[in-house]
Design brief:
Its EC number is 1.15.1.1. The structure is a single chain. This protein is mainly alpha-helical. It has nine helices and three strands; from the N terminus they run ααααααβββααα. It has a three-stranded antiparallel sheet. Strand 1 and strand 2 form a beta hairpin. Helix 6 runs antiparallel to helix 8. The radius of gyration is 24 Å and the shape is globular.
């Protein structure tokens, strides 16, 4: 073989070494292939010592990944929820508030105390949010809750449509809620930032039994600016068994 032939043979071998099988019809080199980013274990997430602690996650970060990606779940749980928990404990200490009842704290808030307002809300809201999701959810409500939903919204689909609209129309960051009002009736509402319907001055006051986070950190990695797609996807992981348990506690 000539010197020139040896050169092209060696170059061909080098090209094959640096090239993997086509992915989706495109040749991908080893330089451009990225390994899947690993995620941690939610059981490793612990708040600092204080009155309130994180409620353990009932599933792994990756178990909802068809609808909410694992990295979003990890950051949301281990950074945002954890951060609100630690800052709530600090705000309570600063205010010399020794209460260990989060509902009482929220109902009796000084709305001008932004540290307590934001972090008590953030703690409660995220505790509810993570609790009503499941990789194996009960797909529909039953019993008295279903009867009330049908009477109020026409059907479960009617309720979900109102929840999706409340979440989609919330400008900026906030939450969409299904609440039980003081008279026992159901209502859909939304709040800004980390406010919730338990707080003084809520537009629709009541006890939340279902809450959907529409802050961008809840969906942006997977859905970017398509909040409506995230809201639709959320319905696939919504566990009506837990929502029913929340409803029974309010009665």
């Amino acid at each position: 073989m000539s010197v020139l032939g040896l050169f092209f043979f060696a170059q061909s071998c080098e090209d094959k070494k640096n090239t993997e099988a086509p992915v989706g019809g495109e040749v991908v080199t080893t330089d451009t292939v990225k390994t899947s980013e690993t995620v941690g274990n939610p059981t490793d997430v612990k708040a600092d010592p204080g009155t309130f602690q994180i409620k353990p996650l009932k599933y792994g970060y990756d178990e909802l990944s068809q609808y909410i990606d694992a990295k979003t779940m990890e950051v949301h749980f281990s950074k945002h929820y954890l951060g609100y928990t630690n800052k709530l404990n600090a705000a309570l200490k600063e205010a010399n508030n020794k209460s260990n009842d989060i509902v009482s704290i929220l109902k009796n808030l000084d709305m001008n105390n932004s540290a307590l307002r934001n972090n008590a809300g953030g703690y409660y809201n995220h505790m509810l949010y993570f609790d009503i999701m499941s990789p194996n959810p009960q797909k529909a409500p039953t019993g008295e809750l279903k009867t009330k939903i049908d009477a109020t919204f026409g059907s479960v689909d009617g309720l979900l449509k109102q929840l999706d609209e409340a979440g989609a129309k919330r400008f900026g960051s906030g939450w969409a809620w299904l609440v039980v009002k003081a008279d026992g009736t159901l209502a859909v509402t939304s709040t800004a930032n980390q406010d919730n319907p338990l707080m003084p001055g809520a537009e629709v006051a009541g006890t939340p039994i279902l809450g959907i986070d529409v802050w961008e950190h809840a969906y942006y990695l997977k859905y970017q600016n398509k909040r409506e797609d995230y809201l639709t996807a959320f319905n696939n992981v919504l566990d009506w068994k837990q929502v029913e348990e929340n409803f029974k506690k309010v009665k």
